[in-house]
Amino acid sequence: MHKFAYYAPQTVKEAARILSKNGPNSKLLAGGTDLLVQIKEHVKGPAPDYVVSVKNIRELHDVKFSARAGLTIGAGATISETLATKGVQEHFPAIADGTAIIGSLQIQNIATIGGNLCNAAPSADSAPPLIAYGATALIAGPRATRTVALEDFFTGPGKTVLKPGELLVSIHVPTPPARSGCQYVRHTPRAQMDIAMVGVASFITLDRKGRVADARIVLGAVAPTPIRARQAEDSLRGQEPTADALRAAGDIAAREESPIGDVRGSAGYRRYMTSVLVQRTAQAALKQAMR
């Protein structure tokens, strides 16, 4: 394995200072389930000369929920810790949908949601549901912090808005309003231990008359980054959520993406599955909203 200097800072400020000092050839280590493989296999360019662990930064490991404040997931919190947090399964079922299928149970005990996001794979299963819920990312640098909408966090495959010296601190997800629901489903060639060929998260809020007051449809693995299917969302707002309306939204969403074709599936097949999964997840979100 490539040799590197290892740092274990105690605070976010110290971590940002180390990252800023050592420049772009430094990498953060959270769970390491992606980074260590990339170093060993020489994936994503040259191996880093500096690795900065966040394991000793306590605030990055917190996962907190309250009905008023919403859910805050520290960037260093593991998937298992997030899933075990009271309120996640009840109020954010799509987050549970997306994170419970990442790797194996052993991986989930080590891997972090922050790492899954910062790895910025277009197929990342945690991204579509978080975006659908309207999540924001808190980012710290050597001098200041900033907040960005998670849908703006990704800039390309393996790329994010993080600047040199910056690190992801936490993800905040507001508590969904009443009469709303959200579900995430992915399609994979294998039943387990695979990455998404297509992933879709649909969030729907109903008004008092049963019409769609708001809709957010997020597509994963069918573009360079997770994307909002905004035209499909617009087609649902103000409408009765009939089967025909959902079918039309699915077809519109399939035209908004830019999928690749490879050995795992053609671009046409990915578009077809997008339409199917938009209808399926929207219907499931509607059932939750009607409870």
Explain what the structure shows:
This protein is α+β, with helices and mostly antiparallel strands. It folds into three domains: 5-53, Uridine Diphospho-n-acetylenolpyruvylglucosamine Reductase, domain 2, CATH 3.30.43.10; 60-173, Uridine Diphospho-n-acetylenolpyruvylglucosamine Reductase, domain 3, CATH 3.30.465; 182-289, 2-Layer Sandwich (Enolase-like, domain 1). It has helices at residues 12-22, 35-41, 79-84, 88-91, 93-99, 105-108, 113-119, 127-132, 230-236, 243-256, 267-289, and strands at 5-7, 26-29, 50-53, 63-66, 70-74, 136-140, 145-149, 154-156, 159-160, 167-173, 180-187, 198-206, 212-220, 227-228. Strands 4-5-10-6-7 form a five-stranded antiparallel beta sheet. α9 (230-236) packs antiparallel against α10 and α10 crosses α11 (267-289). The mean pLDDT is 94.
Helices and strands in order, then pairings?
Blueprint (H helix, E strand, L loop, with lengths): L4 E3 L4 H11 L3 E4 L5 H7 L8 E4 L9 E4 L3 E5 L4 H6 L3 H4 L1 H7 L5 H4 L4 H7 L7 H6 L3 E5 L4 E5 L4 E3 L2 E2 L6 E7 L6 E8 L10 E9 L5 E9 L6 E2 L1 H7 L6 H14 L10 H23 L2
Parallel strand pairs: 1-3, 2-3
Antiparallel strand pairs: 4-5, 5-10, 6-7, 6-10, 8-9, 11-12, 12-13, 13-14
Helix pairs in contact: 9-10, 10-11
Q: How would you summarize this macromolecular structure in one to three sentences?
A:
This protein has helices at about 10-20, 35-40, 80-85, 90, 95-100, 105-110, 115-120, 125-130, 230-235, 245-255, 265-290, and strands at about 5, 25-30, 50-55, 65, 70-75, 135-140, 145-150, 155, 160, 165-175, 180-185, 200-205, 210-220, 225-230.
